[in-house]
């Protein structure tokens, strides 16, 4: 799609075009919400809950805007089925990270964990 000069998802295979309809934003939201697992942890997004579902993917990186700044995740599976995670939360935001039944508290700033 990028090679065809598109900046949103194509609506038709041929002729390839995009009218920038709102539905084309859905895959981007689903990537951040489901694959990267970034979601509100409490009403009003006062906290964040990060619970990734990588499926067959070995790694995923994403950033989501939040009223307090940008939430960043960098996730990498290891050979034993564990996960290396780098999470960065904006100032004043905390939350939790969930992976295979384990829960780790998150705080503002950058943090790294091996799960």
Question: Could you characterize the architecture of this molecule?
Answer:
The chain is mainly beta. The chain is built from one helix and eight strands; from the N terminus they run αββββββββ. The chain has one helix at 26-35, and strands spanning 38-40, 48-50, 59-66, 69-77, 83-89, 95-99, 102-106, 109-114. Strands 1-2-6-7 form a four-stranded mixed beta sheet. A four-stranded antiparallel beta sheet has the order 3-4-5-8, with helices on one face. A hairpin with a 7-residue loop joins strand 1 and strand 2 (48-50). The mean pLDDT is 89.
Report the structural category. Answer: mainly beta
Q: If classified by CATH, what would the architecture of the domain at 36-114 be?
A: Sandwich
- Note the beta-strand portion: 35-45%
Major beta sheet, strand line-up = 1-2-6-7
* Averaged pLDDT: 89
Query: Looking at this structure, what is the CATH superfamily of the domain at 36-114?
Result: Maltose phosphorylase, domain 3
**Total count of strands:** 8
- What does the radius of gyration come to? 16 Å
Q: For the terminal residues, how far apart are their CA atoms?
A: 36 Å
Encode the helix/strand succession as letters: HEEEEEEEE
Proportion of residues in helical segments:
under 10%
